[in-house]
Design a protein that fits this description.
Blueprint (H helix, E strand, L loop, with lengths): L1 H12 L11 H78 L17
């Protein structure tokens, strides 16, 4: 039982650590305000980045639309040119077929005479 009585005395003999000073209410309010300002700044920077990325994507989409319209125009122009080329290439072939199958020959333009119907 001697040990039981000695324990409280031992505790009392050991000096307790001095209590930490608590920061004042004003210091806590300032720290909280600094934290809020920091979050606002970080959020603003992130939102600015999001807006920048959105504007960049919009510009790329506009450029892509322009390129697609140019591609469509060029495809239409190529199709038109191919049709003209096919027509021009078909003319001699048709003429050769007419000469071979029908016996039709081109007319000598020096033998052509015109009739004046205005008189």
């Amino acid at each position: 039982m001697a040990s039981v009585g000695a324990a409280p005395a031992a505790r009392a003999a050991v000096p307790a650590a001095p209590p930490r000073p608590r920061p004042s209410r004003r210091a806590r309010t300032r720290a909280r305000a600094r934290g809020g300002i920091l979050w606002i700044a970080v959020s603003g920077i992130l939102l600015t980045g999001v807006v920048f990325v959105s504007v960049s994507v919009l510009r790329l989409n506009l450029a892509l639309d322009k390129a697609n319209s140019q591609r469509t125009q060029l495809q239409a122009q190529i199709a038109s040119e191919q049709a003209v080329l096919a027509t021009e290439l078909a003319s001699p072939r048709i003429q050769a077929n007419a000469e071979r199958e029908l016996g039709v020959a081109p007319v000598d333009l020096s033998t052509v005479r015109y009739v004046n119907l205005a008189k």
